[in-house]
Amino acid sequence: MSNPTAAMVVIGDEILSGRTRDANMHYLAGQLTEAGISLEEVRVVSDVHERIVAAVREMSDTYDHVFTSGGIGPTHDDITADAIGAAFGKNVDIRADARDLLSAHYARTGSELNEARLRMARIPDDAVLIDNPVSVAPGFRLNNVYVMAGVPSVFQAMVASVLPTLTGGAPLLSKTLRIDRGEGDIAGPLGLVAQEHPHLSIGSYPFQKDGRFGSNIVIRGTDAAELEAVGSDLVARLDAVTS
Amino acid sequence: MSNPTAAMVVIGDEILSGRTRDANMHYLAGQLTEAGISLEEVRVVSDVHERIVAAVREMSDTYDHVFTSGGIGPTHDDITADAIGAAFGKNVDIRADARDLLSAHYARTGSELNEARLRMARIPDDAVLIDNPVSVAPGFRLNNVYVMAGVPSVFQAMVASVLPTLTGGAPLLSKTLRIDRGEGDIAGPLGLVAQEHPHLSIGSYPFQKDGRFGSNIVIRGTDAAELEAVGSDLVARLDAVTS
């Protein structure tokens, strides 16, 4: 696949404890697929400096783009900015551009820009701010890493700020066939069709609905007409097996 | 932290494409937390052999327990068993114990144990099977890695089989009753039996076969004789309802 690649690092004790069900991964995955960028890996790591540093370094070396969510708020456990700085050997301190955004915002809303809130202006040297139209405190990009908030509404707004700046490949299209038979019944013909079209991604995702097993067959590629043709071919072969 | 540590590897093109929102991570996170096991990291990797091998090796070296979900079905894209074997240098082939489970199941249900379904008996040498009371095809444990299905109902049943072995309690046994009636028909007596035995876990997993609804009732506990007795009691009460 020649589309750009991406990975995500979720900084999330609250996901790992089961208290919160992740929403950002699912959102980003859909957005990237639409944009023709291939999300290849996601890591959910706990709020531990060394783990964030290690994951970000490895993902940054391996994939074209890396997106992080979480840990850029005002409390003591928001350690993402320092971890990103450490990952790339950059100094991290309160930066004038970020502080100006915050002070204007808090002056407007009548809140105090206290020490805690000022933590949200801690940005690594050479990083470029990411616009936050929801709650002002910015994200940032350093090298190929986009650092964004964990709150879903803010995360989504930041993704909207960032995505147009990325060059995607041809949008990856998908055709889904819902087959009311279990995978064991259809695996033979399905495997043959997959072999005959090695440049397409053909996945089988079993489901159980009302006690009945079925399979969603997802054919992915960039040519809509080809997806239709392969889908019809597969359905015909499965019908032949049935009758 | 002195609690045992755990990590999860989700084998999931369908998660990374945004087509499906992960449910297993959230489920496992909650279960492990309840059990006093600390989930420290989750990786979602694409269905690529080398990536699965690398993730499993690294997580197995780093954490006490590793759980995987996905990729153990009968289709061409189910490559997890081979990846786990490769991660630990173990041969992977159709194993007699797994094949016997499948052949008994398909004989019972009148389906053919074809070549595709036999793929689900491919188990690495030295692995220990994980009970699958929902759809029989087993998971397995190899070293500290627990390999489980991606379908949430099956994943959850396998977690229920595995978790008691981690907390050091008495092994949890299960008795499965295949009832040829839908859940709506049996819910009354089933609920009474569950109420009378609060220390047992009694689950109902509906299915539909040849246009008829049925239910697999799974009773879990530590006393084999008690499971037999409760199972017989339940069958008797259901017969009384029928007649």
Automatic annotation (TrEMBL), chains A, B:
The record, for Gene3D superfamilies, names: MoaB/Mog-like domain
Query: Locate the MoaB/Mog domain: which residues?
Result: 7-170
The record's listing under CDD domains reads: cinA
Name of the protein in question: Molybdenum cofactor biosynthesis protein
